[in-house]
Amino acid sequence: MAALERIGHHVRTLTFKMEHTSETFLPPLLDPVTGEERVYLYEPRISNPSPVSRQKRPKYGSWEMSDMLIKQYNPLFHAATNIPAFIRAFKAVRNIEHLRISCPGQEPAQRYRRSSVDYALISLRIAVERAPLTNLTTLSLLPIHPAGVFYLRAMPGFGSLPSSAKRWGQIKKLAIHMDAWNFEPTNGATDHLRFLHSFLSGFSANLERLSFRWKGFKGPCPFTLDSEPILQIDKGKRLKRTRFRRLKQMELKNSYLDASQVDSFIRRQRRTLREFDFSETTLRSGTWDDALAYLSRMSGSDDWKKNQVIEEPITPISDAGPIGEELYFGSPQHMKEFLRNSICVK
User: Fold this and answer.
1) E strands, the chain, where?
2) Helix (H) or strand (E) holding 166
3) Which 3-state string (H, E, C) describes 183-216?
4) What whole-number distance in Å separates Cα of residue 39 and Cα of residue 69?
5) Which one, of 74, 88, 104, lies nearest residue 2 by Cα?
6) Inter-residue contact 11 to 96 (CB < 8 Å)
7) CA 296 to chain centre
8) Helix (H, G, I), strand (E, B) or coil at 72
9) DSSP string spanning 120-143?
């Protein structure tokens, strides 16, 4: 950490990579006496207790719970919840402009279980909000598991500050590659889609460039979830329409939607949107002529279609190289050592 604090101010791109493995999986917490499963309610500890303090406070709420967690969960979990170490690390790289987060490898069966990766994302989010990262403008989640955006979104609780939303409001470029899942309503698909909608809405004020891809099979358009049929079943939980007030470029890949949703999105963003890309996107209903009819009406003819292929495409955010120096925890072992070196369990 001392070395990072000496050279961290040179870093412009930071990559945080933590894979889902057998070591990050968290089994049910069992009472050592009765053998029954215990529920653990996580309360983030932002600062370590003072060494001169006479009265020590247990890290995990109670001494009993702390004892169970220390004995039953591996060191990676305790390192992932060491929020002071994360804050110190991000303060050392205070000049970063691009933050890349990569959490690949989640098994579908674990989608509704919290893992050490999720606790690390909570710690990372709190650190980003508390460190003076005034130059941060680009965020890439390549890839991220469906629940990951729930732990990264700015919301009351989980150690948030009143100014938390302001930090994420700095983001002007956002790229997301998200693992797809079964989107049938009976499979709980709506919960994760609502998390995604809430996460994207948090960037609506200043976002200028937005790129999204479903990994695996196709999924619904994340920019028009307010009109997605599977989210219309529960009328009491209708989503609010999101308009990105400064969005200039949009990229959507490996998705499906209706022609009416494309038309609605273009109308909604007509004052700012300059480029859009619907690569590998399928229409469930209607035709592309129907979807893009508004552009023809605005231009007065269909001549704009002749220039729909751009000869000099803009490099996708996900493929863009670092602007300056890059710090990369490239392998699971590197990330594991970084986390374990920061462990402080008392």
Assistant:
1) 11-17, 29-30, 37-38, 98-102, 138-144, 173-179, 209-215, 219-220, 249-253, 255-257, 275-277, 281-283, 325-328
2) helix 164-168
3) CCHHHCHHHHHHHHHHHHHCCCCCCCEEEEEEEC
4) 11
5) 88
6) yes
7) 36
8) helix
9) HHHHHHHHHHHS--TT--EEEEEE
Q: Which structure tokens are listed for 150?
A: 């729930």
| Total Cβ atoms within 10 A of residue 295 | 17
- Cis amide leading into 32 (omega within 30): no
CB atoms within 10 A of CB 187: 10
Query: What SS3 state is found at 162?
Result: coil
160-218 pLDDT, tens digit each: 888 888 999 999 999 999 999 888 776 666 889 999 999 999 999 999 999 999 999 89
Longest Cα–Cα distance in the chain: 78
Which alpha helices (DSSP H) does 8-134 contain, by range? 63-72, 75-80, 83-92, 116-130
Closest by alpha carbon to 206, among 247, 161, 264?
247
Residue indicated by tokens 């057998």: 22
Kind and range of the H or E run holding 60: none
CB 297 within 8 A of CB 289: no
For the chain, the 3-state helix, strand and coil shares in percent, each to the nearest 5, are 40, 15, 45
**Residue 254: left (phi > 0), alpha (psi -120 to 50), or beta?**
left
For 20, the token pair is 């889902």
Q: For the chain, give the percent of residues with pLDDT over 90.
A: 60
Nearest Cα residue to 178 out of 187, 186, 189: 189
Q: For residues 239 and 194, what is the distance between their CA atoms, to the nearest angstrom?
A: 8
pLDDT digits (tens, 9 = 90+) for 274-318: 999 998 999 999 999 999 888 878 766 666 566 554 333 333 444
Backbone phi and psi for residue 91, each to the nearest 5 degrees, phi listed first? -65, -30
Which tokens is 195 given? 């998390």
List the end-to-end C-alpha distance of the chain, in Å, as a whole number. 20
Above pLDDT 70, what percent of the chain? 81
C-alpha to C-alpha distance for 71 and 59, rounded to whole angstroms: 14
For residue 154, give the nearest of 172, 138, 167, 170 by alpha carbon.
Answer: 167
